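Escalated from tier 1: K2U holo job.
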Amino acid sequence: MLMMDDIIRDGHPTLRKVAQEVSMPPSEEDKEILRSLMEYVKNSQNEEIASKYGLRPGIGLAAPQINVSKRMIAVNLLDEKGTQISYALFNPKIVSHSVEKAYLTSGEGCLSVDENIPGYVPRFARITVKGVTLDGEEVKLRLKGLPAICFQHEIDHLNGIMFYDYIDKHDPFKPIEGAIAIER
Ligand code: K2U
Ligand code: NI
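Tier 2 regenerated the structure:
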């Protein structure tokens, strides 16, 4: 199982690389990597396992964060209706998005960033994502709210982008014009 020591931290060059597409059909090795990402996220949300192994809780994880520069992400969270959103995807791609923006009023964190970096992170309010599941099935997901924010955070990791890149350095909590404020 993945541990915190397997997660690389800000400053590691892999976090700033554009990750490579995963060849389809995925190899057993690539499937094992993607499974391990989802296993980490679920373990980190299990209080007993997380405290036993000192795992920082997360709702998503991208392969570059374990120093694998390949386009794979895992997301596991409850949306605002309490519906479980759980996807481990190869080659996820945002194929369309709203003009309207949204942001978490709490700001964002990252398992690869140990310190708190306060400020609003503008995201698209709604996105459509295509990707390939572990079973080789192509999925098309229409997302909003926290799921949309999380997928954008994870897909940014595949493009070498960190959440704090978006924060206004002079006024981190400057209101984002016309954006939906998402309380968490
Ligand atoms: O990619 C990661 O480092 C995991 C991130 C994912 C994330 C950050 C901000 C907003 C959405 C997703 C976090 O560590 S997960 C921690 C967390 C938990 C609940 C809500 C937001 C962030
Ligand atoms: Ni992150």
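DSSP finds three helices and eight strands in the chain.
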